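Question (not urgent): is this output format expected?
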Amino acid sequence: MKLKSMMTVLALAAASLSASAQVDVQNAWARATVKGQSATGAFMTLTAKDGAKLVGASSPAAGVAQVHEMKMEGGVMKMAEVKGGLDLPAGKALELKPGGYHVMLMDLKQTLDKDSTVPLTLVFKDAKGAESKIELKVPVAMAAPGGKPAAMDHSAHMAKPAASK
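Got this back:
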């Protein structure tokens, strides 16, 4: 009976690894922060072999991690959480980048220093609703790989001084 249990565990582990291997993550990076900054973004290119949804994220470095989108509405740039997950069409690369889709890391527990790494777990669902996770160690940088400046305003997520009474 022990052998059967062990084989079941190994089969489940292999299935989990197989599911997570269906999404390829390239060029991941997170923007470095300064002392007192409570939020930043993580960026990357995702390609799902058979299609999937990015339904969540987490990091021990942040109290909250969410998939966000920035877009223009009525001449004003708006940023909000993507509800219900971000579709990853089969075989097509989707770039999470400053000014567009990104993983928002909020309530940071410490400064993210340039040239360090931050652990980040991405959660996906396939067409059948099966969930898989990919654990990353994301490099922290001031700009995107290749030296492109990465402008993105996260002041809406910054700590605000308490109102005096």
